[in-house]
Give the backbone structure.
Amino acid sequence: MSPDIPSKKTIIIIGSGWAGISAAIHLARKHQAVTLIEAADQLGGRARMVMFGGLPVDNGQHIGLGAYHNLLELFDIIGLRESLVFHRLPLLLNVIGDKTSVSLKAPEIPAPFHLLVACLRAEGLSSTDKAKTLFNWFRLIRPDAHHNMTVTELLRCTNQSERASRFLWAPLCTAALNTHPDKASARLFQRVLKDAFMRKRTDSDLLLPRHNMGHVLPQPALTWLSQHNVSVITQQRVTGLQFIRNKICGVITSHQTLPADQVIVATNAWSTARLITDIPDLKKLHENLQQFKYEPITTVFLKYTRAVMLKPTMQGYAGRLTQWVFDRKITDHPEIIAAVISAEGEHSNMSKDELVRTVINDIRTVSKLSDEPIDSLVIREKRATFSATPEMENLRPANMTAVKGLMLAGDYTQTGYPATLEGAVISGKQAANKILRCHNSIRTVP
Ligand SMILES: Cc1cc2nc3c(=O)[nH]c(=O)nc-3n(C[C@H](O)[C@H](O)[C@H](O)COP(=O)(O)OP(=O)(O)OC[C@H]3O[C@@H](n4cnc5c(N)ncnc54)[C@H](O)[C@@H]3O)c2cc1C
């Protein structure tokens, strides 16, 4: 990684999460002079590699959807074959409870009929559940819900059955929005459902990473960016922004001051708030960011002496502390299980030992795995995502700010998506396009 100081004024991107990486790629492909500055020692932000007993895992198990078109577009641009980094599986949901289990598998026919048939063939739903789900499907997704409505209210007023709500919609909501259905925005949930189920069949495919997250996008992107003259600086925190009147002119890092014509702040929301404190033109933005609320994601990695062989590879648990388990054979580590617990809950106050014991017990009971793990790693990402409530939707900022040349990117900006990899990538693309449009209009002025 080159710590070179750029010799001319340039576009600086602060933060190399998936939003910053996306902005850098979209600008570099249009031959812009870009410098990407990251405080950490690796790219990737909240979707990055961590080590567990000598093996690479993630700061949290991630999955994607076939509907992540903007992410897949990035792979195309940098010449990375999707099949090298993701296993693509037709939608397969298995949610296992103590007495009831629901299993839904989408056949390979066009959308939305694949969902219709999946629902008709679903195991664990009664004919009344199926009839209600199908009959009320269009009521569930159309028209846009009232902006204050929560997912629980949406499910109630569209007459979803208790079992479909508990085994289908609630787990989907918590997984996609990382927010409990009682609090989650109905509109945001509708957006995810429409994108996943209403366009192409393959949009509802599950994309399971073949590698740790660092090797899915950050590493290949770093290689591509270096080949496209992007200067990537790591281990330097940006501590301040410089202005001349109402125009950005540079950034101050822990090591140096760098001039810039345009700056994209692609940090997380709380770091952005810190960077713009005391800038009079950004007072309202700062106030809004200060009101942001966050949800945690807890991941427990367990290591066994031999391959664990969970079937299916990804399983949902209903009525337990553990919500989803993944057999990490998907990343070539069949001796590791990742157990995921989204959002707040009783686990938040548990000690690490208590949490690990509870997760092991859940796996033993539900997945019938009697082996005793030999090692464990608990990662609690306290601010994994913003809380996807209706109120939060009003606080999410646009990419443009009131300061000339200063843009925002990040999963928390207005993308229409919850905090996801796709949302982050969209935000980076949007910010880059605004800069490119601005450059083009300057060039075309006679
Ligand atoms: C445990 C977990 C599980 C998740 N699971 C999924 C999933 O299954 N599917 C999905 O789609 N999404 C998932 N997400 C959400 C997804 O990871 C995030 O939405 C996405 O990574 C956010 O990217 P970002 O670029 O907006 O922000 P970040 O990743 O937070 O990037 C911001 C970057 O800015 C850097 N930075 C901050 N301040 C400074 C500074 N002053 N100077 C320089 N650099 C700075 C940070 O170090 C960081 O690298 C999950 C998130 C977590 C935490």
